[in-house]
Design a protein that fits this description.
Number of strands: 0
Structural class: mainly alpha
Radius of gyration: 21 Å
Order of helices and strands: HHHH
Distance between the termini: 31 Å
Number of helices: 4
Mean pLDDT: 87
Low-confidence stretches: none
Length: 165
């Protein structure tokens, strides 16, 4: 049931990341066309493509975390007994969750600091737009790290036999 809920929660973010990617490709294509074909510089496209890239990174990280797609090397961990795997898994997931919480809190603290800063080519938009995906993505990542941790414990302790040392 938890797996079904977690898959439903990430669907809108997944679609949004795809749309951001399309938007970024369009912006870069416009920039290339104007710069090299028409010989006209359009500076706002570069800055908006960078904004899309930031959104794609933080929201895309939540999608990757939800799908369990992060890179990990488990060859040595799998050779350990259940108790050392439990301890190591708990430490790793705790550090990841603590990092995401620090990122979220840092984003909140930085929110007021950057409210007076604007994009140079689009002065009506302020730099807080860079922090919105962080404030959305970090809680998603914490949620999915907790789900993965629960699934890890379930896999670890539902196996028959094995060494408990």
């Amino acid at each position: 049931m938890l797996d079904k809920i977690s898959k439903q929660i990430i669907k809108p973010i997944h679609v949004f990341v795809f749309l951001i990617m399309i938007c970024m490709v369009v912006l870069v294509t416009i920039q290339i066309f104007f710069r090299f074909v028409l010989n006209v510089s359009v500076p706002w496209t570069e800055e908006m493509a960078r904004l899309c890239f930031v959104w794609m990174i933080f929201l895309g990280s939540a999608v990757v975390e939800a799908e369990g797609g992060q890179v990990s090397t488990t060859i040595f961990v799998e050779k350990l007994g259940r108790i050392p795997q439990f301890i190591l898994g708990t430490v790793i997931y705790s550090i990841e969750i603590l990092f995401q919480i620090c990122l979220f809190v840092g984003g909140i603290l930085s929110w007021n600091t950057v409210k007076m800063m604007t994009f140079s080519t689009v002065p009506v938009w302020d730099y807080r737009l860079l922090y919105i995906p962080l404030l959305i993505g970090a809680p998603y990542m914490v949620f999915y790290l907790i789900v993965q941790n629960i699934q890890f414990y379930h896999r670890l302790f539902s196996e028959k036999g094995g060494d408990d040392s």
